[in-house]
């Protein structure tokens, strides 16, 4: 009869006033048993599931409500009763030889058997449970002007927080606190305030500081004496150039905010920042627009060693002086100098391969602007070398929409794969792929079907799991924003070595999610695991559009603004003069700001695609694991397994 075992996967990070979800899997239980999961910490802080009944082989996702806890040392504890469990003994298995990683049992160590089980692991406490986005009516103010701002307080799911106390203060350019509000209550997640600047304030960079539930968020703005720009300057460049074709045309445009051309003089400065302080300056008259030819190599007098660099950046700064008033405004733009027109890169592929399974190679072939190469163009030569091979193997492939997808089957005795490519007489080093590690030399591989297509909230996703041996039961968890948002046990019919399954992308998985799959080998109680990272769009779930009844109007004339969104939605509007936009940006809330903030809840600790062992797959995904099974990790200090 197989041995009863348990496997617990839980987030490494614990947050107050939030649900903490734990995935618990039991294997080969002779009869239903009771399991209790608890989180305990200082000040008698305890959350528990109470007794939960598990059947013979079952996976359940258990939820523990965490209260208004403070920082401290917390532990996750699991107990089970009414069955005998044998704990894995790392000394009861040995390697057969140095070339075969298979572990064989020894008879020198007795089996460790316990009545029921108890296990615990330490958690990391993170007080942040809300996000704050701060918006001002502009990014720069004059003395005496009014600073208007609002703070949006939301959960990691972007739901409004209305039951939290909000404290706000404003610091001047010297760091002094000049105004504060305490105990504010958000209305549908929004707090709005304003500050009238004095006639002689401290000039410089000020900051709005918002504190909610012990976590501070800050937004800078500037106070300065300035004149609003009356015209805009734009430097139009190609996005890149190659060293063998260094001639470019830089187009400088100068237009008033109402669209008319600016007459005056132009000074253009060309500067390379990396390694060599080379500078080129030229002057031209301008009447709205002017084209300036430049040879980036000769005009900058670049030395030979700079010309041999793989790539570097060139910055062009245009200063336009208006003839009528003598006012000057400037704008800069940057372009990249490359050694070749075509990029060949490996994308969306793990940096480790699993012996006995296909290693998928996805190569992107584009120009430096990420435009796919033509499908009827030259073929790409892919060269790959397995360790101990005497010769390179070569494949001729044609890119389709700029992508090449090929599978390699490395032999079991190889330690790495070296990938190289050649396209249009240029050679490219793709990478060196390491071998994954497993004591039994068995592996699984998780892939997303239709992986080239984007993922949106509400979309049904399909995944395939391939294994080097038959699997009877597969357990999978999905992590999003540092929490387990989906867990399921999948019984695979007829113990097949491949299986497909699906799930729906939910808002909790946006903007980034991880799928972790694992199974248990009865022969040596080894947990075999793999993981997959995927991005999910649809972070902002409330659609909104803004239209006006006119596109052009006179000063003082009324403008009708129409906002379309969901019923009962809270709408905030911001109108900004175009001259203010030209002066300084950074006052608004962008989609990129939201995605960046939500990723701070993620518990990914290292490069996900560099995980070599099952232990690294779990560790790098930001979870803790408790089990009486073998979870292999890389050797440390001479020890082979820990």
From TrEMBL:
The keyword Transmembrane does not apply. GO terms for molecular function: endopeptidase inhibitor activity. Keywords: Glycoprotein, Signal, Thioester bond. Residues 444-583 form the Alpha-2-macroglobulin bait region domain. InterPro entries: A2M/Complement_sys, A2M_N_BRD, Ig-like_fold, MG2, MG3. It holds the Pfam family MG2. Heterodimer of a TEP1-N chain and an TEP1-C chain non-covalently linked. Forms a complex composed of TEP1-N and TEP1-C heterodimer, LRIM1 and APL1C; the interaction stabilizes TEP1-N and TEP1-C heterodimer, prevents its binding to tissues while circulating in the hemolymph and protects the thioester bond from hydrolysis. Mature TEP1 and to a lesser extent full-length TEP1 interact with SPCLIP1; the interaction is induced by microbial infection. PANTHER family: CD109 ANTIGEN (PTHR11412:SF136), MACROGLOBULIN / COMPLEMENT (PTHR11412). Binds covalently through a thioester bond to the pathogen surface resulting in pathogen clearance. This is TEP1-F.
């Amino acid at each position: 009869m197989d041995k009863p075992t348990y496997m617990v996967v839980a987030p490494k990070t614990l947050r107050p006033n939030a649900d903490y979800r734990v995935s618990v899997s039991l294997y080969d239980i002779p009869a239903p048993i009771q399991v209790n999961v608890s989180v305990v910490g200082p000040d008698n802080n305890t959350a528990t599931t109470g007794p939960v009944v598990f059947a013979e082989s079952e996976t359940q996702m258990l939820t523990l409500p965490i209260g208004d806890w403070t920082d401290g040392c917390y532990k996750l504890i699991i107990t089970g009763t009414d069955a005998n469990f044998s704990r894995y003994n790392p000394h009861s298995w040995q390697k057969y030889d140095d070339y075969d990683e298979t572990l064989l049992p020894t008879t020198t160590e007795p089996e460790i058997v316990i009545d029921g089980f108890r296990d615990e692991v330490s958690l990391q406490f993170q007080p942040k449970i809300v996000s704050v986005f701060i918006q001002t009516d502009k990014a720069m103010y004059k003395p005496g002007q009014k600073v208007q701002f609002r703070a949006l307080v939301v959960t990691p799911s972007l739901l409004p927080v209305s039951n939290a106390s909000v404290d706000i203060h404003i610091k001047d350019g010297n760091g002094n606190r000049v105004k504060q509000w305490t105990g504010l209550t958000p209305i549908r997640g929004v707090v709005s305030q304003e500050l009238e600047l004095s006639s002689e304030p401290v000039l410089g960079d000020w900051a709005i500081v918002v504190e909610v539930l012990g976590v501070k968020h800050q937004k800078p703005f500037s106070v300065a004496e300035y004149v609003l720009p009356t015209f805009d300057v734009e430097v139009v460049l190609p996005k890149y150039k190659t060293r063998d074709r260094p001639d470019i045309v830089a187009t400088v445009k100068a237009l008033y905010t109402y669209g008319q051309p600016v007459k005056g003089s132009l000074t253009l400065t060309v500067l390379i920042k990396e390694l060599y302080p080379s500078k080129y300056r030229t002057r031209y008259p301008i009447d709205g627009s002017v084209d300036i030819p430049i040879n980036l190599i000769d005009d900058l007098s670049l030395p030979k060693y700079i010309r041999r660099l793989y790539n570097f950046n060139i910055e062009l700064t245009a200063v336009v002086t208006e003839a009528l008033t003598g006012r000057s405004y400037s704008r800069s733009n940057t372009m990249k100098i490359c050694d070749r027109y075509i990029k060949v890169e490996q994308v969306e592929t793990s940096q480790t391969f699993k012996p006995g399974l296909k290693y998928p190679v996805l190569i992107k072939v584009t120009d430096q602007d990420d435009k796919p190469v033509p499908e009827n163009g030259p073929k790409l030569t892919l060269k790959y070398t397995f360790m101990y091979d005497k010769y390179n193997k070569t494949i001729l492939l044609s890119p389709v929409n700029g992508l090449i997808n090929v599978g390699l089957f490395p032999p079991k005795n190889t330690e790495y794969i070296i990938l190289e490519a050649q396209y249009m007489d240029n050679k490219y080093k793709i990478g060196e792929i390491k071998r994954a590690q497993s004591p039994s030399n068995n592996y699984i591989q998780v892939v997303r079907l239709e992986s080239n297509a984007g993922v949106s909230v509400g979309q049904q996703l399909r995944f395939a799991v391939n294994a080097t041996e038959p699997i009877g039961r597969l357990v999978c968890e999905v992590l999003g924003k540092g929490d387990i948002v989906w867990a399921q046990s999948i019984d695979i019919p007829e113990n097949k070595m491949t299986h497909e399954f699906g799930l729906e992308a939910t808002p909790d998985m946006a903007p980034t999610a991880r799928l972790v799959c694992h199974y248990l080998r009865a022969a040596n109680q080894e947990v075999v695991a793999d993981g997959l990272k995927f991005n999910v769009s649809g972070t902002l779930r409330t659609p909104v559009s803004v239209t006006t009844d006119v596109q052009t109007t006179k000063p003082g004339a009324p403008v009708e603004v129409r906002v379309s969104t969901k019923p009962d939605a809270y709408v905030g509007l911001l109108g900004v003069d175009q001259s203010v936009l030209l002066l300084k940006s950074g006052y608004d809330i962008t989609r990129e700001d939201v995605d960046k903030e939500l990723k701070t809840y993620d518990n990914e600790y290292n490069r996900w695609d560099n995980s070599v062992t099952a232990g690294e797959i779990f560790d790098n995904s930001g979870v803790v694991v408790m089990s009486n099974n073998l979870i292999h990790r890389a050797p440390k200090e001479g020890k082979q397994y820990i």
